[in-house]
Predict the 3D structure of the following.
Amino acid sequence: MRALSWYLLLLLLGFEQPVFAQNARIEAQRLSPNPPVIPLKSALGEQAFAEAMASGKYAFATSFKCRLCHRDFFVGRKQDVHDHAFAKVLQAGHSETEQCLGCHTTGYGVPGGFTSPIFTPQLANVQCEGCHGPGSEHIRRNAEGGFLAGSDRPGILKKMCLVCHDARWNRAFDDFEAAYNSYKAARPGDKP
Ligand code: HEC
Ligand code: HEC
Ligand code: HEC
Ligand code: HEC
């Protein structure tokens, strides 16, 4: 009991983050022996990923570029948790922890993607390109697609979701198909 009241006192004093209140799965992730997760690489597979990157066609544009032609999506997505996902690692004191960045940023581990909050703040959070992959080729081709994980490649896009929403980080949805389909609307969570 005494330990508990000390803990509560420290909590009140604001000492809880990041030292005292680490939740178990954050600790487990931090100590994971596996290399940091790179969603695009896992979704495409090593070889297709390497080929796409070597082609030189794929660079990140940031969601502000997408806004030029998809204003409704841009505005709707501002209310989606993906667009605020970096705050969670920041609050947990892990904004520079490699094990966390792949799933809470855009393109960590991908050439030209997020590297750190100081050098690439414009790629924090899971933006449009965090799900669809780098957008430069699409911005050249517009209605012809050009995404590594676009509407014409739902198999890859579903893998993107499930690489981030893995066995440890599985609390976001019960019905995956319904959650996936809701992202066809500008405001996710709306009925497709
Ligand atoms: C494999 C992808 C992945 C990695 C790696 C990852 N996260 Fe997350 N994180 C998620 C997903 C998906 C959610 C939302 C679903 C959920 O909470 O299960 C989430 C939610 C969270 C939340 C909010 C829910 C909670 O438990 O409080 C925090 C905080 C968080 N992550 C911190 C971290 C930290 C710190 C690390 C690194 C030690 C990390 N995450 C690594 C995917 C990931
Ligand atoms: C959490 C992942 C995710 C994020 C983030 C995301 N999208 Fe998507 N997007 C999807 C999914 C899933 C679909 C449906 C693909 C399909 O047709 O199977 C989709 C479809 C679309 C479509 C086609 C809609 C239609 O008419 O079918 C557009 C346009 C689009 N997204 C633009 C954006 C833009 C712009 C952003 C950023 C502001 C964004 N997306 C962010 C997952 C995402
Ligand atoms: C110069 C205009 C333009 C820009 C910039 C642009 N798009 Fe598009 N996009 C289009 C057009 C045109 C279509 C086809 C009609 C439609 O669905 O609105 C399209 C379709 C899409 C689709 C559905 C088709 C597919 O291939 O999956 C997605 C997803 C998408 N855009 C996402 C994005 C994202 C993410 C960005 C930012 C990286 C972006 N767009 C930037 C013009 C643009
Ligand atoms: C790059 C990693 C990543 C990808 C790709 C990703 N997510 Fe997420 N998702 C997260 C994180 C991180 C959170 C938690 C964000 C937070 O709480 O701040 C989250 C949260 C969610 C939530 C909770 C929404 C809410 O309002 O609480 C849903 C639903 C969800 N994701 C569905 C999807 C679907 C469907 C896809 C694929 C179309 C997808 N996600 C792709 C990382 C990802």
Notes: The mean pLDDT is 91. The pocket of heme C (ligand 1) is lined by residues 23, 26, 29-30, 37, 88-89, 92, 94, 97, 99-100, 102-104, 164-166, 169-172 (CB under 6 Å). Residues 2-12 form the longest helix (11 residues).
